[in-house]
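fold-stage: in
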Amino acid sequence: MNRRNIAHFFVLLLVILFFSVSSQLIFGSEPDIFSWPVYTGNEGHTGFSLGSAPSTKQTFWIYNGTVGYPSVPVADNLNVYVGAVNGRVDALNATTGALIWSFQTQPDQYFEHAPYVATGHNLVFVCPWTETTVYALDASKGKIVWTFDAGYRVGEKAPVFSDGTLYICSIADLIALDASNGTLLWTYPQPNGDTSFSLAVSNGRLFVGHTSIEEQGKFLALNSTTGEQLWSITL
């Protein structure tokens, strides 16, 4: 192999590495053109999809539920999941719109934010508006896999899932759970206030905006594995 071919080889290798790293940064850890597991697309909240936009305005199906659906729908490769005003979660077949299963939380609940689908793990995470309970459901059957009582309301912010860990935001703490069984991994206290933004995870860091009446807003970065604060900015 002459020098020119060697140079071309290394240029090609660098291009491949660049796009491999870039795709992880842009699309999150599990890019999938057929799923939309959280409101903004992935755990990094990029809002980006690898799929093509619709070429027509054709309606494929309509599902007429018995109650309203205030939450944004999310989807995996098979189903669409949406929270209802009566604290119920419905799973619909993404191709036909047929109801697959329903799961009822406390009947006086509703959903401010969408569920989170752990694509490839067969789990749907549910945080009703005023409950202190986090539910992990079997995505194919709607049965409870585990629950976790956070002690404080958890439904004001959407959960986020990354690398086997579920991150939730109660009105008192940021909480990291083992997504497979609900075991508590760590907590990070929220002094004197609530979070203003949804959690986002990227490259081993958990990002969160924090504000309260008593103090200025802050933007924090935590180690996603340990919960240790890496840095903060006062806004």
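fold-stage: in (second)
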Amino acid sequence: MKTQLYNLKGESVGEVDLPDAIFATPWNPDLVHQVILAQDANQHHPWAHAKGRGEVRGGGKKPWKQKHTGRARHGSIRSPIWKGGGVSHGPTKERIFTQKVNKKMARVAVHSALSKKLADGEVRIVDSLEMSGKTKQFFASLKMLLGKNVSSLIVPAAKNLNAARAARNIPKVASLPATSLNVSDVLKHKTVVIDKNALVEIK
């Protein structure tokens, strides 16, 4: 499969071969949805925690005898129906939210998302993302390449640290190495900008 190759000025400088194993994957919305839900769940940290009656300090002694007081029977002042007692069915930090996703599923989801982006004209392959690392210069290049909407995921070659540094402070722009691509970031940004030399690194 061939597609246009661009430079950072937005000019077409030829064509580049794309691996069919990655960019010709059928769109699979169900798989993509499943992987995104799992990624979101795995980032969830259950900080909220309410103490149950067994965790609240005190309440070991029966407040009054069982019978002949005229009052309702109680066994602990830390019962959930007492002020200062435990909480019934409250949030607990022991809850496990993580979901398992097979590596092959995650990989196919990324390939499916990249193929969909390419079909929609939202993938730009550039001859090089080498630059000085200056944010202002990189932002100007992105505007020439993408137009007004610079929302993009930058995929530089492995040894190119300047591109990641330059993209760090630009709103709606993120940078990921090719080996760390995930379906959430691919779909969250309008355009995926890939260094030609990073194509062989995409798993």
